[in-house]
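Weekly puzzle thread! Below is a chain. First person to post its structure in token form gets bragging rights.
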Amino acid sequence: MQLGLINSAFAQAERDTKFGMEMTKAIGFDTIDIFCDPLEIDQAEKDLIAGTSADLSLPIKSLACVAIGLIDFNRSVSRFHLERCKAYLDLCQEFNCDNLLLVLGEYIWQQEVIPPADQWQLAVENVRALGNYAGEGGLEIAIELEPFRLSLINNVDTMVRFLDDVDLPEVVKANCDISHLHLMDIAPKEVERLAGRIAHVHLSDCDGKVHGDLPPGRGVTPIIDYLAAIRDTGFERTVSIELEYSPDPERIVEWVEEAYRETNAIMRQLNCRD
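Winning reply:
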């Protein structure tokens, strides 16, 4: 496996893109994921990201896209977000990514007004359309399992069902977020049900109660057990560390270095770091 970092760690500490990418390489990461919106960044920023990636030999493996509008019951809204996600896929191609990491969001109004089945079906239809578009460009879509009660995809059962319903097995796959699995009380052995269907992995720690995205060792997540289970599915691709909202942004480099050091040790223990 390769070890990557999502650049939002530096961006949320208000460090610029180039600094974040340069530090990612200097610390020792193999790859980087970029959190950006193709409808907001300009060509100069795109060129900076692509150029810095090439100069540093730091491949961009994934773009992260939060697209809760894909399941909006207003069809004009969902159509807009479908086109927005296609713009993400275009940018994935421009950056030579492997996949688009896609967050679908939650059921609206506590499932009491809009029938949940209707939102589910809208998600299936839109992700299938995106999958067909991604497949034409040789890309994958990685659906993130979210640790919230009303999320469409929040356990292995819903992930398997969603991937089955979309029915594009070579393109639309799962993202395994290790702290999310723990927050949803999903046993590591459940990961084996996703064998052959995992496109990407996120890794962080948490307190076992609320979403945290902490460096490994700062929480209670049995990271080694989950990562071993993921390894045992045959997954050999990228594990990206996700760090959010450092408590001391002035010391963000140390925060990222700690996460790298602890994760690298776990991966070496499991003999799964390339």
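Puzzle host: Confirmed. Bonus trivia for everyone else. The first strand starts at residue 2 and ends at 6.
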